[in-house]
């Protein structure tokens, strides 16, 4: 840790031309390649139109192309292709000549083009994009079956950057802060010429402007050789902070001997010291507590045009992006005043992936390009390898392609963990982040104490704080009270973290629902699809959500704005009792009042063979009697299922599973309010199970017809409806199940009982088919297995069309093999 402290005491920082965002001036031009492109799948000859930036429709390999013009007056210019983000691995060609490779998604790259690649008139760019995340070579690595695909294709800006034939190359700025006010600037640049005129006798005019636009310095530096270097002092410089984001403007103008302007380049720069001291972050020699949010920059539109203003209104001073944000986000953070911790695209990478040489090469190249693009931004203070690195130990860190800070770097590196257990004797990073979304029974104070004892000089931040897995987790059916309780719990937990002297920062997890396309069971406002999962974003009518207000009040120094809420009674659970009593009364009324119903019901369980023989002989069983039995059984299953949904409605894992299982997103949109209104949900599920049993009867009749047997649909329905009566015995348990799902032993007993009754139901169906259709037991089992396989195959096909899960199977096996 001593080496770490010494390194971070070195206060010289640098900037490169790449960090300027390729500025457009009178001499330098951007030729945008956004707009309409042609695309086709690798295995298909059909081309179709796509928009860039935009998304590709599937996880496949695509070819993209478009034509563009180089204006005649730029024919002698030098050209660079700038790509701000392509997901994922890609190869770029222009006019059938190789330009370069994109090894990872979310990566901002630039490719200097050799003379002769571009020519006047029409040119064609051709890009091969592997839009499928692959656990062997793609970055980011696919995170698992339950995590949907990230946006595919050219997701950010792409353009040709043209500079004059005589121009500045690699302008660079380094600065040293002396006594927190005096700034020493070292400005250097190479001067290149593609013409015979050369640059002899020329000069570079250096102009430095204050944040108010006042010239602090303006002078000429003669061009004697191909490299120019000068030093400038700013005696009373102001330092950059999130509260006062002071930016200076540096303009370099290249002129020839006659005073004609040949090239102009500019950048903005903020002066600040950001380092680590004794386990804390220090900004400009003052302790800094980070109050931030964590987001996924998954949308090609970034996070919206007002994202930066939204961060400032929230009162946050930092944002942690799981994946690298677009370059314009750094410029926005510079001007508005908030720090950025940017993730490398290593989210949830399995341990043995780090032994793959191709993977390591991609990471190294990504890191190099990434740093060239961000190293002059005062808002950028470090990057992280993501979370989920628990238990990987020293072998993981041996493969990790990030070294300790050096004198050439002014950023901090970190990695994240989910449990607080770091199985390594030496921690090779500057800070550590703990993820507080996956801790079912979190005790963050013990985790902090444990890590602080082992690594006292390393700052600790909580990189993903969310509500669902926090202590004092409250279960309630009332949506408004649920959100209030969650908001208060979030506020109280974050406040305790920020008050702790051992915690350097706290980042609230504002991820909406991974895909940002569907509502979640945790979110009662289902009509608004733009909401973050825990409600930090404003809702559709632009009023701040309660959780947003809680964090805003906390980050800005206000109180929670309301008193602690009293636990309300669980009136939703009463609905299951009322439904249960209604079903019991309904069933007993007809069972006691109609001897034919009671006789057949007893015979189904006591003498089922006689019941099967009556159906075989074609005897008609009253249609109304069958409906009464099936309605009662369907209602029993509906009450039990609705109580399970109601008890699990606050579980993110349950939400993920439901998202994967439902074929149509609109179905989930309709399902969520039903889960929160169990009385109506039981009625809907009763109809669902009634329909299920009816379709099962249709399947049985179809199986009989396919094997040359005769079975009337009326009798098939009677067979299924009366045998389903076994589930009526679940009514007493279903009535109270909402109150006992929380007890693991009782929960498993309920599942066991349901399984036994289901197996009895299946066995009686098979036995009935054997008697009615004169099948042998083996033939019956074969026919029913074939029909079940056909139905299952159709469902899997629909699921594959919806979720495209086949590409993930290899990854799942890989994760299982790695023991993660």
Walkthrough of the structure:
The protein is an alpha+beta fold and 820 residues long. The protein has four domains: 2-16 and 165-269, Immunoglobulins (Immunoglobulin-like), CATH 2.60.40.10; 29-163, Galactose-binding domain-like (Jelly Rolls, Sandwich); 285-555, Glycosidases (TIM Barrel, Alpha-Beta Barrel); 572-810, no CATH class. Strands 24-25-26-27-28-29-30-31 form an eight-stranded parallel beta barrel. α2 (307-314) links the parallel β24 and β25. α9 (571-593) runs antiparallel to α12 (623-648) and α12 packs parallel to α17. The chain is elongated, with a radius of gyration of 33 Å.
CATH class descriptor of the largest domain: Alpha Beta
How many runs of DSSP E, i.e. beta strands?
A: 31
* Biggest sheet record: 8 strands, parallel, barrel
Number of helices: 20
Structural class: alpha+beta
Overall radius of gyration: 33 Å
Question: How many structural units, i.e. domains?
Answer: 4
CATH superfamily of the largest domain: Glycosidases
C-alpha end-to-end distance: 30 Å
Strand order of the largest sheet: 24-25-26-27-28-29-30-31
Mean pLDDT: 76
Low-confidence stretches: 1-19, 299-303, 391-396, 398-409, 468-479, 512-544, 561-570, 810-820
Helix content: 25-40%
> So what's the overall shape?
elongated
Summarize the structure in short.
With about 800 residues, this protein is of the alpha+beta class. About 35% of the residues lie in helices and about 25% in strands.
What are the defining features of this structure?
alpha+beta; Immunoglobulin-like; Jelly Rolls; TIM Barrel; eight-stranded parallel β-barrel; disordered N terminus
